[in-house]
Amino acid sequence: MQEPKIEYPCDYPIKVIGESSPSFLDDVLVIVQKYDSTMVLDKVKERASREGNYKSITLLLWATSEQQIKDVFAELKTCEAVRLVL
C-alpha cells in the first residue's frame, strides 16, 4: 500500500508530548521556529495531562518538503523533555 502524497507547501500538524515544565513550550517552539519562521502561538494548542505530569503540544508547521518534516521530528526527539513526536 502506498502512502498518500502530500502536496507541498502545506500546513502539517505535529503533536509533541513531553514532561510538564515551565520551559517545555518554549523549548519546542525554539526548535520548530528554526524550520518554520512563520510559527506563531496562534498555530499552537497546549494541553496538560490529567495528573499534570505531561503536556501535549499540537502545532501546525508550514511544511515545504518531506525532508523538512523529518528534520523537525529528529531535532524534537533530541529535546530532553520530549517523550513522543507524532
Detailed description of the structure:
The protein has 86 residues and is an alpha+beta fold. The protein has one domain: ACT domain (Alpha-Beta Plaits). The chain is 29% helix and 34% strand. It has helices spanning 24-35, 66-78, and strands at 10-19, 44-48, 54-63, 82-85. It has a four-stranded antiparallel β-sheet with strand order 2-3-1-4, with helices on one face. A hairpin with a 5-residue loop joins β2 (44-48) and β3 (54-63). It is globular and about 40 Å long. The protein starts with 9 loop residues before the first strand and ends with a strand.
Overall form: globular
Q: Please compute the radius of gyration using only Cα atoms.
A: 13 Å
Strand sequence of the main sheet, in spatial order? 2-3-1-4
Number of strands: 4
The second-level CATH architecture is 2-Layer Sandwich
Helix percent reads: 25-40%
CATH class: Alpha Beta
Domain module count: 1
Order of secondary-structure elements: EHEEHE
Largest sheet descriptor: 4 strands, antiparallel
Strand percentage, roughly? Answer: 25-35%
Mean pLDDT: 94
What's the number of helices?
2
